[in-house]
Structures are given as C-alpha cells and as structure tokens.
Task: inverse folding
C-alpha cells in the first residue's frame, strides 16, 4: 500500500494531542490497583488527587500534565508499504510537520530548546527532535505509529552503570534500588521503572526507555528477565517512598526489564523512569483507514 | 491543621505553618521557572512585580494567544497550568526570599538543605502540589493577570489570579521540618532489608 505524507502528518499531529489528554486504560487500572492497597493516608490522598485529575482532564478536554515532554514517535512499517515519494525522509519530515502543527494549532507549550543557546522555536521541534525511531515488521500490514510525550521530571532521573561481570545480577538489583532512593519524589511517583540490561552503553539506555514506556501488564519476553521484573516490582514498593515522595506503598506501578546480549567483559544496567502520567497513544494506518488506540 | 491564606502573607503567618498542615491560597500567585531565575539571579535582570510576602509556583504554563480583554489583559489565556520538579531550582530559594521577600514556594518533589535553611532563617515554607495533575490545578486559576520577562516565554514571570488554590500540603516549614527528609531517612533505613529480600549478598 501507498501512504501519502499528509496522512502521516495528520496522524502525528493527532497522536501528540491525544497522548497528552487521554491516559491509557492499563495505567488507569494501575491506579485502581495501587489505590486499593495503599496503606498510607497521605499516599491515598495523593493517589486520589491523581485519579481525579484524569477525570477532570477528560471532562474539560485538557492536558493531563502541563509538561508536553520531549515528543517521541516510534514507527513500525509493515510489509509492502511505500511512502509518498518512496523514501524514509518523507516519512520523517511528515512526522515533524505534524508535531509542529499540534504545537501551533492546539496550542501546546513547546518544551524544546537548543541545548546550548536555550532558544525555543515554539514548534516542539529542534535538532534531532522529535525523536523518531523507525522499525520494520514482516508480520503486519500497514503502519503503526506510537507517540510518547516523555516528561522531563522522570527523564531527568536517568542512569547508566557499566557494572562488572564479577558483580553479577546483585549489582543490577542494588543499582535499581539505589536509583529509586535517589529519585525520591522528583520523578513524580508512582512510576514505571524501566531497566535496561546488557547491550552496548547506548543500547542499554534505549532498552530502559522501551521498558519504561511499555504498557502495564506486559512482561519481558525473556523468562529470566520476567522473573527479575516481578522480584524488583515487589522490592521497590517496600521502600516507602510513596506517591510524590511523600511516603506510602505506591512507589512504582511496576518495574519493567528489557534485555540484550552483551560482551563477556560487560554488565551494563540502565534505569529510565516514566512518571504516573504514563502517556502514550498509537495509530494504525491500513488500507481501511486510520484507527487510534494506545 | 488547615490554613486559608490570602496573599501576600506575613512572616508570622508563614511561621505558623507546620509540616503536614494543609493550605488553600487565594488572590495572587506568581509563576516562575529555571530560565526566569537564571535571568534574575545570574544575569542581573529585574522584574517590575513586587513579590514581597507572595507565593511562587514552579511552572511554565501552556497558554494561548487571544485578543487582550478585561478577562485576558495580557493577551494570553490559560490552557493548562501545573507544576515542575522543584529540585533543579534549589540555589534560587535564598535569593528569591532575601532579595524579593517571597514567603511560599509551591512545587513538586521537594527541595534540599539550602532551601530548608533559608525557610528557617528568613521565614518561608514549601507547599507540595501534586505533580502531573495540571488539568485539576488549571481549574483553580481564574486568569493570567500580568506577565513580565516575556522574552523567556514560556518561562516568563507570570501573575495568576487564583481562587481556592489547593489544598496544598506543607512539606517543608520554617522549623526545620521536611517531609521529604523524613521519608528519605526511613526509605534508606529499609535499603539493606529490601536488598536482602532480593537475595543480594553484601560484600
């Protein structure tokens, strides 16, 4: 199938706005689960305000959080798809234009500045931003576009440690617990704690981001990784950091782990967190049209 | 204990606040952010606003441009106004209080030892608002009354007219009380036990 640039542009615009306004159902269920078991009255109170905010955002058609984040688009291209002129540059340009239009036309706060001059172009775009990842899938037809407005409060608390093979999995577990302690309330807990393990330094950090932005209720494809997820999920909620770092049981919705093979000399671990406003939206474009979801 | 405060407030009003009290603010609130304070305290910019006795919130709002009117005198209408992580702005708490007389800082995630010392020495407090709940907080803001240093937009210095802004939780007070420190100490005390449940052998 052939997809024209205008369709991609419109989808990119719509997804940014949808992601900022409607929290995915798995995250809403995550809130219900935490609220049902929170034993701290402060924690209950904070969770209650967060849940109320989700309702107010939908009722007033407003953004959940003032932070419009760093826009990230993950594109999965199925079999036999061609874009406008036929190359990937048209696809990237269309996404960028859609992101810019969402910012101008809604309007949204542009949170993006040049890293040295700090100049804001008021487009939510800049050098290398929006972040666009393009992957291919043999199994599907059409194109899936996922949009993640990644909030800075959680992104500012990101870590990489090139641990030693001799320190083993213990080093990984200790690192995750220490990151949660250091983050305290700064990441807007309850969070989804993304842990990347293995790979190169850059792949390890990227895996942590994939883990942090994965839907709640999904698990690591590797059995050992999945076991580590459930152990860590239980452990971090024993620390008592709680919602907003004000104390309580609900420090994290879950710990998610993503793995890659690594070198015999290496034991890399990275942590990237997603705040409680764990926003994402997706669209699937096929011959039948555009379907929006999460 | 709950306090309903109309800004500006006095030193004795702020010293009456204790951690875990709740506060609802009325009338005026100023919005301030990283770039605003870098401009004011590192680059010698000044503001025409009188911040003495006032509350500032760490924010950079989503706004839309409209025709200036009695309701929107600046030509900006609020879209979505919330808060940001306060810890980045730690070094500005003391000058904000010392040079401008600010009494209350509103934000999320808490601030550090330098801010706590400034609250004690000069009479101030930190009020926790729930991060990521901006849709709700926007309903507590009646209008954008004025804006200064707007070349820094969205990190301008904003003056909001507020009504029933809260409840906010006193999370750091002028008597060396900090909910964040208390939670952090307790959490770090549990570190060894938590690592033990994970089967981590300490070497």
Result:
């Amino acid at each position: 199938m052939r997809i024209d640039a205008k369709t991609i542009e419109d989808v990119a615009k719509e997804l940014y706005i949808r992601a900022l306004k409607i929290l995915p159902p798995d995250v809403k269920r995550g809130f219900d689960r935490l609220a049902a078991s929170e034993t701290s009255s402060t924690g209950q109170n904070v969770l209650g305000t967060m849940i109320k905010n989700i309702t107010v955002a939908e009722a007033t058609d407003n953004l959940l959080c003032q932070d419009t984040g760093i826009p990230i688009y993950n594109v999965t291209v199925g079999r036999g798809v061609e874009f406008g002129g036929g190359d990937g540059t048209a696809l990237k340009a269309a996404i960028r234009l859609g992101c810019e239009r969402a910012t101008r036309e809604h309007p949204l706060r542009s949170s993006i500045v040049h890293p040295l001059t700090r100049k804001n172009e008021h487009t939510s775009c800049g050098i290398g931003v929006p972040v666009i990842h393009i992957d291919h899938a043999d199994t599907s037809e059409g194109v899936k576009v996922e949009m993640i407005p990644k909030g800075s409060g959680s992104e500012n608390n990101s870590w990489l440690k090139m641990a030693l093979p001799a320190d083993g999995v213990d080093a990984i577990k200790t690192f995750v617990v220490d990151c949660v302690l250091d983050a305290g309330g700064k990441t807007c807990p309850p969070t989804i704690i993304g842990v990347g393990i293995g790979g190169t330094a850059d792949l390890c950090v990227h895996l942590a981001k994939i883990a942090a932005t994965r839907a709640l209720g999904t698990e690591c494809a590797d059995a050992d990784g999945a076991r580590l997820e459930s152990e860590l999920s239980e452990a971090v909620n024993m620390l008592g950091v709680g919602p907003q770092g004000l104390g309580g049981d609900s420090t994290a919705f879950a710990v998610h782990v993503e793995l890659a093979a690594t070198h015999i000399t290496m034991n890399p671990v990275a942590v990237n967190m997603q705040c409680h406003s764990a926003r994402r939206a997706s669209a699937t474009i096929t011959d039948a049209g555009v379907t929006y979801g999460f | 204990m709950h306090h309903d405060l109309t800004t500006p407030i006095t030193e004795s009003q702020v010293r009456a606040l204790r951690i875990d009290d709740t506060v609802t603010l009325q009338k005026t609130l100023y919005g301030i952010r990283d770039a605003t304070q870098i401009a004011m305290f590192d680059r010698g910019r000044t503001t025409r606003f009188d911040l003495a006795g006032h509350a500032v919130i760490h924010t950079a709002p989503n706004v839309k441009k409209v025709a200036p009117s009695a309701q929107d005198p600046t030509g900006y209408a609020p879209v979505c106004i919330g808060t940001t992580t306060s810890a980045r702005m730690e070094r500005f708490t003391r000058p904000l209080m010392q040079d401008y007389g600010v009494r209350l800082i509103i934000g999320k995630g808490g601030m550090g030892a330098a801010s706590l010392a400034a609250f004690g020495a000069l009479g101030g407090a930190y009020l926790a608002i729930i991060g990521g709940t901006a849709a709700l907080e926007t309903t507590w803001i009646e209008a954008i009354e004025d804006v200064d240093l707007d070349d820094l937009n969205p990190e301008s210095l904003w003056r909001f007219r507020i009504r029933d802004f809260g409840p906010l939780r006193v999370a750091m007070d002028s008597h060396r009380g900090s909910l964040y420190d208390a939670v952090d100490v307790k959490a770090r005390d549990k570190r060894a036990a938590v690592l033990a449940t994970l089967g981590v052998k300490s070497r």
Summary: The mean pLDDT of chain B is 97. Residues 179-197 of chain B form the longest helix (19 residues).
